[in-house]
């Protein structure tokens, strides 16, 4: 009998759908992606991500499995895009908050303590303000927008069909061997425990401050992360709000983000605000992602704040389920065993 490649339809061209497509194509499937937006990123939470590939830092609040699986993401993205920068993450705290560094260090691993001299060598512009920190040298960051565009271009070259402006009902997809639901938060119609966790970000431009790597500024109430985007652009974000609102940013959040950015370096007071973004991250109650069957549909969802960090592992898990008939782990901990 002639061997026939499986035809798979993926709903959603966010980071979950695109990474799944990459893993399915690598195993010989014919893949089609249906996306309601008019282009990549148009209606995706993935468009707003910081792009930190910081598994060890995430250990501060995430499960150990997130730390382990997240380590695979750096090489995965390097194989699919040229936007990964492996310059480590610098975690800092202002004088009055230095006790936060100790708490952070107690919950994480794979870092070194850095002093003023070391900070000056890593980030000369921050040397005057910070004298103690933690350096996670093996971490990286990417430009999420470039990453998903480049990945979609690679997929097109490999024969993946993209159908934009195509908002589909999950049970109405025909002419395919398998439907994979990667609709992010929109999958609440069938995944009842999925919820949104609002995140807000600013894109700022500064010619006065130069920062080369991902920075986390610890603060008891308002921690901040900053991710360079090149050419004087920086993404700053922080907020984690139990709220599904996807469009409105509050004045309070803007004040807090700008206040923390100014605390990181007063030179940012002259920065231009280029963009304000907001979306809700899809999350399950335990904040870890899942692959599972819902009737005949394979669902990949719940990436929470780890879309770029965990989607490569979740896509590989999904491909193992489809092509090897692997048992679906109850939790990502089990996937590691
Ligand atoms: C401010 C902020 C900062 C973040 N920072 C980071 C970070 O630094 N690192 C990190 O790893 N993660 C980060 N995240 C989290 C990350 O963005 C999410 O985990 C990730 O985007 C979720 O991806 P997804 O593919 O599941 O969902 P989405 O990106 O939302 O993709 C779902 C896609 O499905 C499409 N769709 C929905 N319904 C339909 C339908 N019926 N028919 C057709 N198409 C449909 C949507 O249009 C969308 O394109 C951040 C998130 C936010 C908001």
Automatic annotation (TrEMBL):
Pfam families: DAO. It is an enzyme of class 1 (oxidoreductase). Coiled coil: none annotated. Its cofactor is FAD. It comes from Xenorhabdus szentirmaii DSM 16338. Its EC number is 1.4.3.3. Keywords: FAD, Flavoprotein, Oxidoreductase. Residues 8-320 form the FAD dependent oxidoreductase domain. GO terms for molecular function: D-amino-acid oxidase activity; FAD binding. Belongs to the DAMOX/DASOX family. It catalyses: a D-alpha-amino acid + O2 + H2O = a 2-oxocarboxylate + H2O2 + NH4(+). This is D-amino-acid oxidase. One of its GO terms (biological process) is D-amino acid metabolic process.
């Amino acid at each position: 009998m002639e061997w026939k490649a499986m035809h798979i339809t993926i709903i959603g061209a966010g980071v979950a759908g695109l990474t799944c497509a990459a893993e399915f194509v690598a195993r010989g499937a014919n893949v089609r992606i249906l996306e309601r937006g008019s282009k990549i990123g148009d209606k995706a939470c993935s468009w707003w991500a910081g792009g930190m590939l910081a598994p060890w830092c995430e250990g501060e609040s995430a499960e150990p499995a997130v730390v382990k699986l997240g380590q695979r993401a750096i090489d995965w993205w390097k194989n699919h895009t040229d936007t990964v920068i492996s310059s480590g993450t610098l975690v800092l705290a202002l004088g009055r908050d230095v006790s936060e560094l100790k708490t952070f260090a107690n919950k994480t691993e794979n870092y070194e303590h850095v002093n003023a001299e070391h900070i000056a060598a890593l980030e000369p512009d921050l040397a005057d303000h910070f004298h103690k920190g933690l350096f996670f040298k093996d971490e990286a960051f990417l430009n999420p927008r470039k990453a998903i565009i480049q990945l979609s271009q690679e997929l097109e070259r490999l024969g993946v069909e993209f159908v934009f402006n195509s908002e589909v009902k999950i049970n109405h997809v025909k002419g395919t061997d398998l439907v994979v639901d990667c609709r992010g938060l929109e999958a609440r119609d069938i995944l009842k425990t999925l919820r949104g966790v609002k995140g807000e970000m600013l894109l700022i431009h500064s010619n006065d401050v130069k920062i080369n790597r991902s920075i986390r500024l610890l603060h008891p109430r308002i921690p901040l992360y900053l991710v360079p985007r090149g050419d004087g652009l920086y993404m700053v974000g922080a907020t984690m709000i139990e709220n599904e609102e996807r469009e409105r940013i509050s004045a309070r959040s803007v004040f807090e983000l700008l206040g923390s950015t100014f605390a990181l370096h007063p030179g940012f007071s002259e920065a231009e605000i280029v963009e304000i973004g907001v979306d809700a991250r899809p999350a399950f109650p335990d904040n870890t992602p899942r692959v599972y069957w819902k009737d005949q549909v394979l669902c990949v969802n719940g990436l929470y704040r780890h879309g770029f960090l965990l989607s490569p592992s979740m896509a590989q898990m999904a491909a193992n389920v489809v092509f090897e008939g692997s048992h679906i782990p109850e939790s990502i901990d089990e996937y590691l065993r």
